[in-house]
Amino acid sequence: MKLRVSGKAKWYVYQKIVMIFIVFLVPLIILNIWVNYRGMSFSKNTILDSAAASASFYAEQLDKEMYFIRNQQLRLLNEQELQKLSFRGGKLEKYEEVELIEQVRTGLMLVADRSEYVVNAGVYVASIGKTISGASGVTDIPNPEYELVSLLLKQTPKPSFYQAGDRLFFIETENNAEIWSYIEISKAKLAEELRQIVSLYRESEVFLGSPELGSVLSTAQDDKSSKRESLLIRDDETVTGDNSPESRNVDGTRYFVAHQPVSSLKLSLTMYVNQNELTRPLSQFNLSFYILFGIVVLILVLYSFSIHVMIHRPLSNLVKAFRMIETDNLDLVIESKTKDEFHYLFQSFNRMVTRLQRSIKDNYEKKIALQRSELKQLQSQINPHFLYNSFFNIYMLCKVDDSESAAELSQRLGSYYQYITRSGSDEVLLEKEYKHALDYCEIQCIRFSNRISYVYDEIPDSLQGVHVPRLILQPIVENVFDHAFEDGAEDGMVHIGVAHEDGRVRIVVEDNGLLLTDERLEQLREGLSWKSRKDETTGLINVHNRLALKYGAGSGLFLSRSSYGGLKVEMIVDLTKKGD
Predict the structure, then answer these.
(1) 188-278 topology per CATH
(2) Which DSSP category does 575 fall into?
């Protein structure tokens, strides 16, 4: 069964979980913010529209009431009794004149009774020289009412209403000013109605005004408010102008301002409210929303931290443990304090490490046994041709009476076979292994009738007492004599050098043979890289595998072409990495 994992990991699992959570959460937060602001905007507009509608309602009611009073005034001027009194006054019988005056006074009292805004209604009839008032009765002129009205009538151009201090009047004339009709409007009643509008909002005021007259009537009493109201009156204001609500900044304070025309007075009813008062409940709601948003962010942080503790941290420990195994560090155990899935993974990892340690130990012991077996096999291998040729060379030396050379060859041959057949330790002193290789070179030089010679370096003092595996050098020089000089070439030469630096032994064997081709060199290199071959247990491959197994990577044989033209074999032994 195979488990496949596709792609390269660019994000940790912890990061992926948090990012997915954020990806799903952020749209919800954005949608919530959008709905919140949409709701706030809608609520704010509703409140502003409600305030504007309230001002509009009172303005319309006031306008209707003033138009009604004016209509009553015009109707009164055209009544038959008043007209008869105006035309025939002074010519009527006393009784008839008194009766007409009473009828006119009754009509004036009816005008006052029909509207709460009317304080007094009166007329002046020039033909009888009297003023008739619903409040003060019939009075000869001159009198205070006559003098006040006559003074107001001198204003030009004629206003829509007249002001006399705190008193407001509607004044109309008829019959070439032979009849005056005057109605006093209750300023207190108007102020009372305006105060009903401002009762809706604590930080609001209402005033009646125009660009020409300024603020005529206001619910505010201080001078600061009067100055503010003069700034809030629009210069382009007309009865039929744009009366849509607006937002104005006065003295650093933002006001919501609603203008509504009162055409009967040619004034505008202006309501202004501190915008903070309108939006304060929304601001409190907005604050609650931001607190909720902060709580969501806090939950996100806590969620991320909990994921980090429950998932990311155990996974990181597990990954670190696997990376330590990659560096061949098997002396580790993961401790688990929880009883969740990671506890099972950690226990399984610990069991795996234990089994891996046992497996490596068993495999190493098998390799050591195999190495010793190969050494024994190499020791038992005696090339019969080499032995036959050596005996034949001794025979020929004896035939030519060269007893000294025969003795030398016999002595070298005996030393050679004594070394390779001796049982004992798997390791020997490097100087003994080196001397054995030189004995082999001397035997071969005698066999080849001195057509081949060799030169060598002495063992450095630093390598005295150094042990190496047996029979690692003789197979290298044996390969030279078997393959480099097969063509019977004259003046063959073998160079053997020894060096020691930084804990590494370097022995170089070179020849000047002409038989080595580039293809053959490449085949020899490939043979050394085939570590799994089992059919080759002698020669260069055997030596290379033994050194690599015992001394690790970096030790073994390395082949190249010699500067003399033949094969160059470098044997590297890294004594710092020597195994058990």
Answers:
(1) Beta-Lactamase (3.30.450)
(2) G
Phi-psi map region of 375: left, alpha, beta (phi>0 left; psi -120 to 50 alpha): alpha
What residue type is assigned to position 22 of the chain?
Answer: I
The Cα 439–Cα 419 span in angstroms is 10
Q: Check if the beta carbon of residue 210 is closer than 8 Å to that of residue 237.
A: yes
State CA 198 to chain mean position distance: 50
CATH, domain range 46-186: 3.30.450
Output the average pLDDT for the chain: 80
3-state secondary structure 185-210: ECHHHHHHHHHHHHCCCCCEEEEEEE
- 481 CB-near residues (< 8 Å, 6+ apart): 441, 444, 448, 452, 494
- What is the DSSP annotation of 530-542? -TT--S--SHHHH
Cα 308-310-315 angle, rounded to 5 deg: 75
Q: What is the DSSP letter of 11?
A: S
Identify which of 538, 468, 528 has the alpha carbon closest to the alpha carbon of residue 498: 468
Nearest to 122 by CA among 169, 85, 156, 158: 169
188-278: same fold as 46-186? yes
Q: Cβ-count burial of 226 within 10 angstroms (0-12 exposed, 13-18 middle, 19+ buried)?
A: middle
Q: Count other C-beta atoms under 10 Å from residue 344's C-beta.
A: 11
Give yes or no for a contact between 324 and 332, defined as CB atoms under 8 angstroms apart.
yes
Classify strands 452-456 and 492-501 as parallel, antiparallel or unpaired: parallel
How confident is the model over 470-486, as pLDDT tens digits?
Answer: 888 988 888 888 777 76
Tokens of 56: 């509009």
φ and ψ of 105, to 5 deg: -65, -35
Q: Once rounded to an integer, what is the mean pLDDT over residues 306-330? A: 77
Q: How many Cα atoms occupy the beta-carbon half-sphere of 468 within 13 Å?
A: 28
Is-above-0.90 flag for pTM? no
Percent helix / strand / coil, the chain, rounded to 5? 55, 20, 25
- Output the pLDDT for position 535: 47
| Burial bucket for residue 186 (CB in 10 Å: 0-12, 13-18, 19+) | middle
Element spanning 283, H or E: helix 275-307
Residues whose CB falls within 8 Å of the CB of residue 174, separated by 6 or more in sequence, listed in order: 77, 78, 86, 181
401: left (phi over 0), alpha (psi -120 to 50) or beta: left
Domain boundaries, the chain: 46-186, 188-278, 381-577
On whether the CB atoms of residues 254 and 228 are closer than 8 A, the answer is no
> CA dist 345 to 327, 351, 543, Å?
21, 10, 44
At the topology level, CATH places domain 381-577 in Heat Shock Protein 90 (3.30.565)
